């Protein structure tokens, strides 16, 4: 066991990727947000960044990128769509959706890693839909119902207005990731994972 007793170091390249995707999610908030049908939870492009992080970075790096962003938001930086930031956003109607970004990115990345070294467009889109939509809704809808005082079915029905846009974002994230992975194979999470493991064994 060559690495016994040696502390594992976080690769510099991974640090850079995590920072880039945390910044990307923040930048996707610059166009602002839209509230439709009286929904207090806004529609933003930032979930697109969460999906992209998952399908390109893989599970733990994507989750870390989201965690970095959420910590900065909690510290007061206005990095959410509409210039929102501070601890108050984690007590509002969208709090569950924000917290859901972290497991959503992780699940998206985990599913992508299981798709192997050449994930297809359908597999990537499926990972985005399950992690970047399903998991986030699983956290977001109950919290929205709790904070607003509406019933769970009513909150779910209101959140259904997000589905067409989220479907488009999932397809777009899958297409972008597929193009990036064809040009740069190390952008495939399973490839990066296996190369990292191989490097640790040398």
UniProtKB/TrEMBL annotation:
Transmembrane region(s): 12-30, 62-81, 87-112, 124-146, 152-172
Main location, first listed in the record: membrane
Keyword field: Cell membrane, Membrane, Transmembrane, Transmembrane helix, Transport
A Pfam family per the record: BioY
Taxonomy, superkingdom: Bacteria
Annotated compartments: Cell membrane
Keyword rRNA processing attributed: no
UniProt feature coiled coil, ranges: none
Protein's membrane topology: Multi-pass membrane protein
Keyword Transcription: no
Signal peptide: none
Family: Belongs to the BioY family.
Protein name: Biotin transporter
């Amino acid at each position: 066991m060559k690495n016994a007793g040696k502390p594992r170091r976080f690769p510099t390249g991974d640090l850079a990727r995590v920072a880039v995707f945390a910044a990307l999610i923040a930048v996707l908030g610059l166009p602002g947000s839209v509230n439709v049908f009286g929904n207090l939870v806004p529609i933003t492009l930032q979930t697109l960044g969460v999906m992209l992080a998952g399908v390109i970075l893989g599970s733990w790096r994507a989750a870390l990128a989201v965690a970095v962003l959420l910590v900065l938001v909690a510290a007061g930086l206005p990095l959410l769509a509409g210039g929102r930031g501070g601890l108050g956003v984690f007590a509002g109607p969208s709090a569950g959706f924000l917290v859901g970004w972290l497991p959503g990115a992780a699940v998206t990345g985990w599913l992508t890693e299981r798709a192997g070294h050449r994930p297809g467009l359908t597999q990537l889109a499926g990972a985005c839909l399950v992690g970047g939509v399903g998991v986030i809704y699983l956290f977001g809808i109950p919290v929205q119902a709790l904070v607003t005082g509406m019933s769970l079915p009513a909150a779910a029905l209101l959140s259904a207005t997000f589905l067409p846009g989220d479907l488009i974002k999932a397809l777009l994230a899958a297409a972008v990731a597929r193009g990036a992975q064809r040009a740069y194979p190390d952008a495939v999470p399973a490839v990066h994972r296996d190369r990292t493991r191989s490097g640790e064994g040398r």
